Amino acid sequence: QVQLAESGGGLVQAGGSLRLSCVSSGSKFRFGSMNWYRQAPGKQRELVAAISEGGTGIYGDSVKGRFTISRDNGKNMVYLQMNSLKPEDTAVYYCNVRLAISGNNYWGQGTQVTVSS
Fold it and tell me: Which conformational region is residue 23 in: left (phi greater than 0), alpha (psi within -120 to 50 degrees), or beta?
């Protein structure tokens, strides 16, 4: 079983930065993609960024050039550096991992990010 725990959310003014972290248990598992999603009130959950096992990142159009995803395979952690934050980035941010072999998906509980104007 894999458990995920996000941290680093909070309240920040527009233009500010936050760094989200996600630590995973289950070190015996090999992780494939590690991902960040977000869900704003009244909206569907959307992919923010994803990073492959080899370190290739992809980003949602709304965050390209502002957010950077990274991972530390040795520590089973994934990070999301968020710069130039906008009020529309306000959402609950969720960590998600997909196991490399089984493809099973796991989710964290989420961390709130609030950007004030």
Answer: beta
Residue numbers of the chain with a pLDDT score lower than 50: none
pLDDT of residue 26: 66
Q: In the beta sheet, which residues pair with residue 117?
A: none
DSSP codes joined into one string, 32-88? EEEEEEEE-TTS--EEEEEE-TT--EEE-TTTTTTEEEEEETTTTEEEEEE-S--GG
CA distance 15 to 39: 20
Angle 62-64-69 (CA atoms, 0-180°, nearest 5)? Answer: 115
Contact of 68 with 60, CB cutoff 8 Å? no
CB 3 within 8 A of CB 22: no
Q: Which amino acid does the sequence have at 112?
A: Q
